[in-house]
Write a structure and sequence with these properties.
about 120 residues; alpha+beta; 5-stranded antiparallel sheet; two-stranded antiparallel sheet; 2 helices; 7 strands
Amino acid sequence: MTTKILSALISASLTLAACAPSEPPREAATVSSANTATLLPPKIKKMSADGIQITYPQISMGFDASCGAFRVMSTKLNQCAKLPENVKQLAVDHCSRFEKTAMFMGNKTNLIQMTVSHFDCK
C-alpha cells in the first residue's frame, strides 16, 4: 500500500514539475549577485559550445521583497533568481571562448539540495 502511495506522489510531483512554465532567459552578466555566494567552489556538470551547467552549494542572505516565496506561480520566475559572482563569471568565460553570450536559463535543485544553474551560449 505504501509503495502505491509513494508511486502516486512521485508521479504527481513529476507531472507538476513538467507543467511548470520555463523561466525566460536573461544575459548572465546582468543577473544580480547581491547577498548570495557559494559555500564551495562551483563544479561544471556539463559543458559544450551550446551551453554549460554548473553545480554548487549556495547561501543567500535575505530575499527580495518583490519576489514572493511561491515564485513558481509567478510569470516573472527568472527575474527573482540570483547568481553567485564566481558562477556567473564561469559561465560568461565559457561562452566567450566560442564568441557567444552566456544566457541564464534558470536554477534547479538536485537530489542533494545543491543548486544547478543552466546557461545557454547564444
